[in-house]
Amino acid sequence: MELTEWLNNLSSIGGSTIRMSAPLIFAALGGLMSERSGIINIALEGKMLAGAFTAAAVTTLTHSPFLGFLCGGLAGMLMAALYGLFVINFKSNQIVTGTAITILAAGTVPFISQILFQNTGSTPEIPMGNRFIHGPIIAAWVIMGLIWLWFKYSPYGMWHKFAGEHPDALQTSGIDVIRTRWSGVLLSGFLAGLGGATLSICLSSSYTRNMTAGRGYMALAALIVGGWRPIAAALACLAFGFFDALGIFLQGIQMPKLTADIPFVTQFWNFLVSPQFIQIIPYILTIVIVAGFVGKSRAPRALGQPYLRNR
Amino acid sequence: MKILRPIIATIFAIILGLLITSIAGENPLDVFVIFAKSGFGTPYDVGMTLTYSMPLILTGLSVAMAFKAKMFNIGAEGQLTMGALAAAIVGAQFPTVNPYIAPLFAGLCAAAAGGIWGGIAGYLKAKRGAHEVITTIMLNFIAAGIASYVTVYLLKDPNTQNPQTVPISNYYVLEAFSYFEGAPVTYALFLSIFLAITAWIFLYRTPLGYEIRCVGENDAASSTAGISISRTQILTMVVAGAMAGLVGVGEILGRSECFKLDFSPGYGFTGIAVAFLARGNPIAIIFSGLLFGILQKGASDLEIYTQNVTSDLALVLQALIILAVSADGLWEKILTRKKAK
């Protein structure tokens, strides 16, 4: 490969890394808002899917990407409201309910898509003029900065952290834990919905079936790798976006493969350079980090515990 | 009252689900009739319902087994992928194994592959304190990546464009029972029911099962009583993974006869619903697995017989059932209000 070709490839991977990490950043920040307040959020995938579909549908029907983007966020918020109702008020198990919310989104979205567009697979193509080019990608980083400031300097941010670390102390100081957790969950849904919207009306031109393809879980992984901190989580998203972009790039070109036939070694080596392997690196990395093999990422102390008021 | 709850929750969820179909312009009563007919109409329909149920019983058992030791196995999907892949690889790579033991051999390999995949999460939980929910979700994606690599590069069937492996040798193929008019119901059905009963005996009638339940109820007390928590956690996840891995027996040896990428419509995740509806009781899982099999079969028929309702309705119903069953606080509210009157 010539130098110019290398540079071109490098810049194209760099560009798509920044683009592809934007939905992850939104979703990871969403996860951050809810998990910092003590509510586990493994339903990010479902909220993203709802956001992706709603944004594409609304943009198709109204020709306004702004409205579509907003409604994408609201759709995620709606899913989050249902989640909050069960896990905060009814004290349902957070992991079981989170799974149910994702399943619910996976079933409801094609159902509505069929009614609106007579097609469960995808929404109509959105013309270029009605799509975002850079907006959501910049917004993701701006929101990351705002959340960082919010946690660092605002009392609300501090209450929020306490709801996840030591809810009893927060309640004693007169702040309502339930209300704080609700705001975390709703914001989380809104941000995850925006992440989905970015996917459907910014990175592509329509909603396609199951287009989130595990990005909600990848965002969750990035959140954990980033130690539940906004800047670190966004950087982890960037890294994960890089592996994603690299994997897709490698699918397009023929990688040099080992042809010598050494039992197992050849196959293992060829696996290591395959796009399939590159794309699972983020998941391996996450396991390595939660298992504490390189540094340990600490979860909020009260994460996953329902808050019982008159204890 | 505890036994009634899942039943009431299921009925409630199904009624709500049927009402939702009226949004799509269908008559809920008609939808219900299609459901009933498609589940039991002909021997073939019954066979297909059973075909959908078999993997769900196994993944339900897998989730329930882990939950007895208070662990969430969100990784049944990855475990069954590894199990099915192992069965397909063995079936294709060792074509001349004695036909009497070939399916057994493949089954053991599937269980071992699933067990290893579950065991990794168990080991990381027990020895490194890594939360099993996170590790099993990640292991699902890693399993999918490995399966994709094997299917695309190592064992690709050259005779088709579809991403699937070369067919397994005839020695491994399980014969379908003729009664079901072509539906792929095989001995795998007995395997799943047998495993459910075995799991019940294991959990409630053996010392090892007792230890698993102790760790689930109170790990501090169990530790004081001399039960090794980490050993129990690893063992539980290995057993849970092996059960999910056995999905490969029915799906690969009895149904598709090769590994097809994305062959599972999310059996592992539905297993969570199956296990919770049955409140973790292995015998009850046989029935909740059957119910979810009926839902799956009915929903796929609705796609054919109605204008707007697609098989995705099965997912909506599953989600509603999980929400209704797991909402402890809601049930408390309803029940205490009744008592107050």
From TrEMBL, chain A:
The keyword Transmembrane helix applies. Keywords: Cell membrane, Membrane, Transmembrane, Transmembrane helix. InterPro entries: ABC_transp_permease (IPR001851). One of its GO terms (cellular component) is plasma membrane. It holds the Pfam family BPD_transp_2. It comes from the Bacteria. The keyword Transferase does not apply. One of its GO terms (molecular function) is transmembrane transporter activity. This is Sugar ABC transporter permease.
From TrEMBL, chain B:
The keyword RNA-binding does not apply. The keyword Protein biosynthesis does not apply. It is a multi-pass membrane protein. CDD domains: TM_PBP1_transp_TpRbsC_like. It is found in: Cell membrane. Keywords: Cell membrane, Membrane, Transmembrane, Transmembrane helix. One of its GO terms (molecular function) is transmembrane transporter activity. GO terms for cellular component: plasma membrane. PANTHER family: ABC TRANSPORTER, PERMEASE PROTEIN, GUANOSINE ABC TRANSPORTER PERMEASE PROTEIN NUPP. This is Ribose ABC transporter permease. It comes from Silvanigrella aquatica.
